[in-house]
Amino acid sequence: MRFSRYNIFSKIRDSENYFILNLLSGNADILDKADAIKIEAIRNGESIPEDRFYKELAEKGYITEESLEKKEYRKKYLDFIDSREKDEIQIFFVPNYSCNFACSYCYQDQYVNQPGELKTEVIDAFFSYVLQKFAGRKKYITIFGGEPLLGSPRQKEIIGYIIDKASIAGLDLCFVTNGYSLEEYIPVLLKGKIREIQVTLDGTEKVHDSRRFLKGGGKTFEKISKGIDLCLRNQINVNLRMVIDKENIDNLPELADYAIKRGWTSSDYFKTQIGRNYELHHCQSAPGKLFDRISLYESIYALVKKHPHITEFYKPAYSVTKYLFENGELPDPLFDSCPACKTEWAFDYTGNIYSCTATVGKTEESLGTYFPDIQLKEEIIEQWESRDITSIPGCRDCSVQLACGGGCGSIAKNNTGTVCSPDCRPVKELMELGFNACFENYNS
After folding, report:
1. Are residues 23 and 121 in the same domain?
2. Which pLDDT tens digit goes with each residue over 327-356?
């Protein structure tokens, strides 16, 4: 018997207690210091009495026979692959890369946009490809940009045509928008089956308007807020996203208070997410303002301690700890956290196909075309399809691999030049925060 290679064991932040968690066996426990000392002894190869505690560790898979663990790993991996083959596919479509905003941190600002506008024959070719390529699979379409909901009459015609095509195909639609023209688009959107509208607010009015403003100048906050109100009144799901860096994180409590007072958080059609402003395709003009992943969540953790009402607006996941707290069990092992070319694809109005939203628009990342004819770079697509923790050498001996899943393939490729390299996540550190926030001091 040996200490499982998939145990995640550490001290809970701001606590005398410890946690141990194993996604392969599906168990998690909070330990006092005395039991943690015993765990540490086992991890270091020391022998301890085979008492009740030892037997419980064996029953829960924290100590195990290597041959049995390898067999269980293989079984769970095959289950994961089988499940993923049945998962719903998210298909992104970019009708344009142009935008009416001049956000201070736009990662697409150095894209060279192809001339011309989206034509109906390109939309027809896109739907034809999607219905043939992904026949028999559950799927939905997310309209992405640029800004897809521009206020021009022509853009409304294009979006209306896409909605009509999706309705005929029986496909749900989502939109990722800056929200500025939401009010004008409500009649158009109500003609389709809209699953969700993702809108970004980077804080309350003064903070948001200093970061996300119109080209040529102009405030956007209040108009976006009115659009959110109208979506919720029409029972359209809104996913409000706040993009955070060191310049606006301290405004999170005020934005939470604003959303609560506006009645958004009490709506069944409202949810939130936090986006980390990070260096995606090119260097930020002020990289010192960026958080890495753990420092962001450490800052959110500290803010929630001081301002508990934040959790009415946003509850951090802290890796798998929020899931464990809310469901009473761990999620299945995560053998792959990069959906590119598996459960996510991206297409744009130029006829190009891409792996995901992180690569769409980068012409050198194109995986082929669907218009004017279908041509695929099969060898590159296969690299994306084969990427998971079993094909990434840097993941194979990592104890947190089943919670991390290898991270983002695009970021890994940007950093190392190869898709099959890890984008490491600070899983253990996030759990240290999460066990405190969720199980010792959670404000629900």
Report:
1. no
2. 999 999 999 999 999 999 999 999 999 999
Compute the radius of gyration of the chain from its Cα atoms: 23
Total number of domains in the chain = 2
User: Does residue 340 sit in helix, strand or coil?
Assistant: strand
Beta strands in 70-200 (DSSP E): 89-94, 139-143, 173-177, 194-200
Residue linked to tokens 């996300």: 212
Give the residue numbers spanning the domain of 308.
Answer: 87-327
Between the alpha carbon of residue 300 and those of residues 82, 273, 316, 435, the distances in Å are 36, 13, 8, 14
* Cα(186)–Cα(352) distance, integer angstroms: 29
Both 77 and 141 in one domain: the answer is no
Helix/strand/coil percent split, the chain, to 5? 40, 15, 45
Contacts of 301 (CB under 8 A, 6+ apart): 13, 316, 433, 436, 437
Question: Which of 81, 104, 129 is the endpoint of a domain?
Answer: 81
Return left, alpha or beta for 351; rule: phi > 0 is left, psi -120 to 50 is alpha, else beta.
Answer: left
Q: What is the DSSP string of 324-379?
A: HHHHSSPPPP-S----BTTTEEEEETTSEEESSTTTTT-GGG--EESSSS-EE-HH
Tell me what pLDDT residue 50 has.
Answer: 84
Residue 104 resides in a domain: yes
Q: How far apart are CA 356 and CA 49, in angstroms?
A: 52
Q: Read off the pLDDT of residues 85-139 as tens digits, 9 standing for 90 and up.
A: 999 999 999 999 999 999 988 866 555 556 678 999 999 999 999 999 999 999 9
Model confidence pTM above 0.85: yes
